[in-house]
Amino acid sequence: MTDHELIEMYGQMALAIGQIEHCREFAAIIPEVRSNLVFARTDAKTRDDVLAVDGRITVVSGMPHAAGKPVFGVSSHMARLIIEYRKYEPSVRAGIDFANTPDLTQWLLQYCTKNGWGFSVIDRRNEPEEIKEAEGASMPWKVKEAVRAAGGRPPKIFYETGAVGKEPVSVLVGRDPLEVVGQICTIAELYHDCR
């Protein structure tokens, strides 16, 4: 990785974290497992190639708060997800996970339709048993299922239904963390205003 790419990645993550920490409405859609913001290197192959918030994004005094600094290799789930997603859409390098409720899902479906964004659902009940049982094997299946459910086009937003011991979460992806955070803050604000 070049110094230029490192500077660009850390700089964008710092700006994006600052922006999300000022978005009060995002606090309402942070899941119980907390959120993470990830940014993959252009040639990312493993989780060690993905920058993420160490300790995730939580809520402090009603505001989103990054528990730690951006660090390579500290995310497992979101890092593996973004690496797998890039096999379908290489321009995507960033993503964020957030809460999933029936009400928010219906609202997101309308929002995505209005904006021409792909939206899909991963039904964890359809996950093959042999994949469920193998450590780390579910991510390729989940991303493939998200793309399939979106008609073969990689979706901008997708969510997975809950499974035993798994909280249902939504994911928004984009080219970089500033795009992703700008979009998730807009979603959080608009969703808050319509409730």
- Shape descriptor reads globular
Helix percentage range:
25-40%
Low-confidence stretches at least 5 residues in length (pLDDT < 50)? none
Q: Determine Rg (CA atoms, Å).
A: 16 Å
SSE succession = HEEEEEHEHEHHEEH
Mean pLDDT: 93
- What class do helices, strands and sheet pairing give? alpha+beta
Notes on the protein architecture:
The structure is a single chain. The protein has 195 residues and is α+β, with helices and mostly antiparallel strands. It has six helices and nine strands. It has helices spanning 3-20, 77-85, 102-115, 129-133, 138-149, 177-194; strands spanning 37-40, 50-53, 57-60, 63-66, 70-72, 94-99, 119-122, 157-160, 169-174.
Task: Give the gist of this structure.
Helix content is 39%, strand content 20%.
Keyword list:
195 residues, single chain, two-stranded antiparallel sheet, alpha+beta, globular, seven-stranded mixed beta sheet, 39% helix
Topology diagram in text:
Blueprint (H helix, E strand, L loop, with lengths): L2 H18 L16 E4 L9 E4 L3 E4 L2 E4 L3 E3 L4 H9 L8 E6 L2 H14 L3 E4 L6 H5 L4 H12 L7 E4 L8 E6 L2 H18 L1
Helix pairs in contact: 1-6, 2-5
